[in-house]
């Protein structure tokens, strides 16, 4: 990540400033950071499969599902997760989720520490969020943070192997790793 030479911004200033710009960047503690835009085929396929599974499983009248081009506000600024689920009901001109319920990041060598560190911290403080998912792009292995019945995020659960399932209890949904990783790992 490289720091951009932009002045400190608020979340709303950043969303308007960033609209329509080429490249990818996030806002963290008022500073703009340039992000990786070149990803592997495995990354693209995994993001696409996860998005398709969620679109097919969830009711589109209740949920909006999308990928990395739509913002999620965090206590530190604005992130662009690889896959997200938002409560439907926003406007067509929104630039960020209104009530994010699920976010997923796909690991790359450059994002490992951030996805498990500051992003996990930021995402799990979003009041509406039910699940934060980190996916390996090389093998059927994921890490899942989920809120319990008391609304508290539990320590991440590592799930691995093609016979395993991801329990997204907040949506009453289980995703088979074999389906998610078919043709990828």
UniProtKB/TrEMBL annotation:
Name the record gives this protein: Putative restriction endonuclease domain-containing protein
InterPro entries associated with the record: Nuclease_put_TT1808 (IPR012296), Restrct_endonuc-II-like (IPR011335), Uma2 (IPR008538)
Source organism per UniProt: Fulvimarina pelagi HTCC2506
Residue ranges occupied by any Putative restriction endonuclease domain in the UniProt entry: 12-172
Origin superkingdom: Bacteria
Alphabetized Pfam families for the sequence: Uma2
């Amino acid at each position: 990540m490289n720091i951009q030479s932009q002045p400190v911004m608020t979340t709303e200033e950043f969303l308007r400033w960033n609209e329509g710009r080429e490249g990818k960047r996030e806002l963290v503690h008022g500073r703009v950071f340039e992000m990786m835009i070149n990803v592997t085929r495995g990354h693209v396929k995994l993001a696409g499969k996860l998005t398709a599974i969620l679109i097919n499983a969830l009711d589109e009248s209740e949920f909006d599902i999308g990928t990395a081009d739509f913002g999620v506000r965090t206590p530190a600024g604005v992130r662009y997760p690889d896959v997200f689920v938002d409560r439907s009901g926003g406007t067509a001109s929104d630039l960020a989720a209104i009530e994010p319920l699920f976010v997923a990041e796909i690991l790359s060598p450059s994002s490992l520490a951030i996805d498990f560190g500051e992003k996990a911290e930021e995402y799990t403080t979003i009041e509406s969020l039910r699940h934060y998912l980190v996916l390996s792009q090389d093998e059927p292995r994921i890490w899942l943070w989920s809120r319990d019945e008391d609304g508290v995020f539990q320590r991440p659960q590592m799930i691995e192997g093609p016979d395993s399932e991801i329990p997204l209890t907040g949506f009453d949904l289980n995703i088979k790793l074999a389906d998610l990783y078919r043709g990828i790992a």
